[in-house]
Amino acid sequence: MFHHCVIHSTVRRRLTAIFATISLAAGISAASAQGSSESAPRRDAMITPDPSGWLQTHTSTGGIDTGNPFFQSLGTNGRSCNSCHRQAEGWTISAAEVRQRFADTDGTDPIFSLVDGAVSPVADVSTVDARRIAYAMLLNRGVLRIGMPMPANAEFRLSAVDDPYGYASARELSLFRRPLPATNLIWDTAVMWDGRETFTPFKPPMDAGVDHADVRISLASQALHAILGHEQATASPGDAVIAQIVDFELHNFTAQVVDRQAGELNSDDAMGGADILAQQRFWVGINDTLDNDPTGDAFDPKVMRLFDGWDDPTARFSHDSGRRARAAIARGEQLFNTMPIDITGVAGLNDVTGQAVIHGSCSSCHDAPNIGNHSMALPINIGIADASRRTPDLPLYTLTNYATGQSVQTTDPGLAMLTGKWADIGKFKGPILRGLAARAPYFHNGSAATLMDVVDFYDTRFNVHMSSQQKSDLVAFLSAL
User: Fold this and answer.
1) Mean per-residue pLDDT of the chain
2) How many C-beta atoms surround the C-beta of residue 280 within 10 A?
3) In a 10 Å sphere around its CB, with 0-12 CB exposed, 13-18 middle and 19+ buried, how is residue 88 labelled?
4) Rounded-to-integer distance, Cα 441 and Cα 451, Å
5) What are 247-285's pLDDT values in tens digits?
6) Residue 441, preceding bond cis, omega within 30 degrees?
């Protein structure tokens, strides 16, 4: 399980009290699945274009309440939650859109702030060219710099630092991370990549569309810290404001609704789009890979069932490009559920189960049905932060175990920065997979520029030996989520 923040009792009472003012709307509108195969959907404020087609956001009110404090600057640097969580980018940011903001403002948009937008908080931002250098990681990877000190009483020490920006030290490591989407959060079982805003116990509601108090407390803490940190507010905006932000976030659902090649993703028995997603059944632990489902049901590797009806073995011989595109998505879904992967060397999984090799598939770690995150907090190290995958724009930290003298190099210690545990180095959560096409780049550090890069990572990491057709089909499926 994730390390969970220890809060002073008065703070916890204060956060808990926030939720007396939050009301959960009871109704979720039914999906409107259209049979048309047209490539363009109806045009309204809830549907926005992205590189693969069109992205849909569903809310309980049918609109986006831009009067919510989520969209208001509550600090001193002009930022709001919306600065880093944009509807058209799946409620996070894409590197491409950030570059456009830089071009439009010469790097003066509020997202470009020294507090965490630059490669260091002392970078030169006096000219446009200087700002382009200072904000290079945000422009190229869509990452913010999270400054964190070495944890007290850690089982390891920082024995060497190679920071291309000359700032990081044991006093403050520079950790470059993507903002996570502010949508589909009702199903989140760990808040933040390292789970540092996660509170326990997560209670398992058994009804679709019912949020649980623990994720509300977690999101309230995250919102407060974001306002005080990212927005550089001098004081808390108050419980009522935090409650409004959390309520807004918990009512957002986002998914791809149209694919440029395959057409409407909720037609002909398919279940794409945010309207259908909003009705997805979920509880904490549902379909857990490690058999922690509170219902006692066994893990079912067939996690994704959105496009079963599009399975068409003859489509590749058709002259209908839309039919071929739908069949590719269906094949990709089947690969996601069933393609054999020998999972090895994953801290938090192989060591926890005592199995050197776990014969699984993509769905082994992305087990929440039709959602794609892990239905329980499962911080794992798949190697994204390993020294072997370091690029020159990332700092490299050498950590040495006090007890054994063993050293390891990493670009981000992940969960270990909270727990201080040697075994937690490099561990991160897996994010919810819906709306992927809108929010490149991928992984916690933005190291995968495209979904094909994501597939290539897993192919090489676990020696899957996918064919080019399999890779293409998987990307088609992931793009349709």
Assistant:
1) 90
2) 20
3) middle
4) 8
5) 999 999 999 999 999 999 999 999 999 999 999 999 999
6) yes
